[in-house]
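>> received
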Amino acid sequence: MFHPSGGLIYHLRALRFRRNLWMPFHAHVLRWITDWRPATDQLVLVGPSGGYALSSQFLARFDKVTIIEPDPLARLILRRRFPFASFELDGDSSLAMPGGFGRLVVRHPHAAILFCNLLGQQLIGEPRGFDRRSWLAQLAPALTGQPWASWHDIISTEDKPRHFERLSRPHADPIESVCSHFWSNHELEVHDHNSYGLCPDRARQYAIWAMTPREFHLVEWVSQGG
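>> returned
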């Protein structure tokens, strides 16, 4: 409830920063999800929180929207922000367990799946000794043939970037190369979210999210289908 990446602290930050500091990054997310056009009328939102980065126009493209969101306050905010949407709740909390991505596909075989800044975060139900990189390596094989997309934290730091222009790459370059696009500091102190290089041969985009005036996240966008 009080973790800064989710729960009450995150919602208070959204209340303070969503209409100013967060707007440039949310514009990047809006562009990403607008350009993503999966050929299905079903959508699963995994970890949408209060839907602060989502739009009515995007959600209206789908006849059925299922949410996987353990935070009850986030679900309440999400429903109030998008009252037209008839959200269905998937209460499964085993995504972080072995075979979690496969079970997600079994439950929603005809849906597009959007991971909403989740894959680089601490997850509900993480088993002891959880290895995020090994877990993420299971995503692409499990979701073969199914449309999915994700924006997720790669690193976070207190060092302010020299610019905030997004970066597009045809594949996953070395993380040092990506960081050098945004920061001139070669001794950058970062928190590694252990999510870099998801589906390394797939095209991707990067953007900076200024979460607070002193906390900056490098975010990666990857998609399949659409």
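>> Residues 8-224 form a domain with the Rossmann fold fold (CATH 3.40.50).
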